[in-house]
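A.,

Following up on our hallway conversation. Structure tokens first:
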């Protein structure tokens, strides 16, 4: 069988493997608490659901433009202006089925055999997978616990060379929950300004889930990066819309048509119904979203303090997203073994740190997108590992 080498090298996202294992155990009657998958546990707000139902009834059933309907791109443009006071016209905005295609397209457009792409480790596993698939050399930028899992600028600068085509930044970060504030981002941008040939993919999909700062320091705020900046965003996390498959991205003018062509080749257009729901999400009431954010904040405080009370765990304080990334080295177990025991013996699904990169062997990721009641139970169960 002559299967392409690229396909053989493709990696996966272990959170889905953990989800499948957890679901199998649930079907066998086990009472599993799932802290593995990274999706809000709240339903999509009702006004968004209603907008989708209306779109179906109004007959919005056909193909849409490959880059998304104008009304939605205008809503995104307005959203960017309201959030960051930055003007982006709808021709720079691309609507995709979720945020993931933006990673795929950036890697395909800026990857290839001659290029190097820097990505965070630990980081979202799809970065490395897509970089490898493109043929580029993936260069891990290790984020360490001593730096609160923020980017160490000295380390990053050492990795940049004349083959570097793209640097991927993810703030707030999956899997660690770390958040780089404006002061840190100012310094990062000042350093990046020295390398005008290098493109930046800023994955800001958790931009609305930040705890101690009221303002997300989006890279969209920095004019000096604008003609080489790709921003990945979407509805999945902010609006509890993971299954709707809807994302938006901002592209530099010279790359936009490449990305749009990839859309036509790949999926023709995003789901039409989801796009109408997306307009309501951005323009309708934000009340439920604010409540959800407050609930995540409460859970973050709980999980962070309770994890640190456990004998075998220490956990740095997350500043955003809905993940905690405890260090479990005091247990004497690797992250893989710890996650196995948690699932098989304690019925708690977690994701081992190595699913997010080679540097995270002593860690596990806990998604606290689960009820307080289940979080309390999970802490109790983990206390005996
Ligand atoms: C950092 C990061 N980027 C992108 C994505 C992809 O999001 P979507 O489900 O919208 O494709 C995720 C999803 O978990 C993520 O954690």
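Then the amino acids I'd put at each of the 385 positions:
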């Amino acid at each position: 069988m002559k299967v392409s080498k690229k396909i053989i090298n493709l990696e996966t996202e272990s959170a889905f493997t953990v989800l499948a294992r957890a679901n199998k155990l649930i079907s066998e009657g086990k009472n599993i608490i799932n802290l593995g998958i990274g999706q809000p546990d709240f339903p999509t707000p009702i006004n968004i659901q209603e907008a989708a139902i209306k779109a179906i009834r109004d007959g919005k059933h056909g193909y849409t433009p490959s880059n998304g309907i104008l009304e939605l791109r205008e809503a995104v443009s307005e959203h960017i202006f309201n959030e960051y006071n930055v003007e982006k016209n709808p021709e720079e905005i691309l609507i995709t089925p979720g945020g993931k295609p933006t990673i795929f397209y950036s890697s395909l457009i800026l990857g290839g055999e001659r290029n190097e792409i820097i990505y965070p480790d630990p980081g979202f596993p799809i970065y490395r997978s897509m970089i490898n698939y493109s043929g580029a050399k993936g260069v891990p930028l290790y984020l360490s616990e001593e730096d609160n899992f923020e980017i160490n600028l000295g380390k990053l600068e050492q990795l940049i060379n004349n083959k570097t085509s793209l640097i991927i930044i993810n703030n707030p970060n999956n899997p660690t929950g770390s958040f780089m504030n404006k002061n840190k981002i100012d310094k990062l941008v000042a350093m990046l300004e020295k390398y005008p040939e290098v493109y930046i993919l800023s994955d800001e999909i958790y931009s609305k889930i930040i705890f101690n700062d009221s303002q997300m320091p989006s890279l969209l705020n920095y004019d000096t990066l604008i003609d080489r900046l790709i921003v990945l965003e979407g509805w999945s996390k902010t609006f509890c819309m993971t299954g709707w498959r809807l994302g938006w991205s901002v592209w530099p003018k010279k790359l936009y048509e490449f990305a749009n062509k990839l859309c036509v080749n790949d999926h023709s257009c995003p789901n039409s119904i989801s796009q109408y729901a997306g307009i309501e999400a951005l323009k309708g009431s934000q009340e439920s979203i604010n409540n959800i954010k407050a609930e995540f904040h409460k859970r973050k405080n709980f999980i962070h303090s309770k994890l640190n009370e456990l004998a075998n765990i220490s956990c740095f304080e997350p500043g955003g997203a809905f993940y905690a990334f405890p260090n479990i080295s005091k247990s004497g177990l690797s992250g893989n073994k710890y996650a196995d025991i948690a699932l098989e013996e304690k019925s708690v699904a977690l994701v081992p740190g190595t699913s997010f990169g080679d540097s995270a062997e002593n860690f596990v990721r806990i998604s606290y997108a689960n009820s307080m009641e289940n979080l309390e139970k999970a802490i109790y169960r983990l206390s005996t590992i």
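Residues 5-44+287-382 form a domain with the Aspartate Aminotransferase, domain 1 fold (CATH 3.90.1150.10). Curious whether your intuition agrees with the design.

B.
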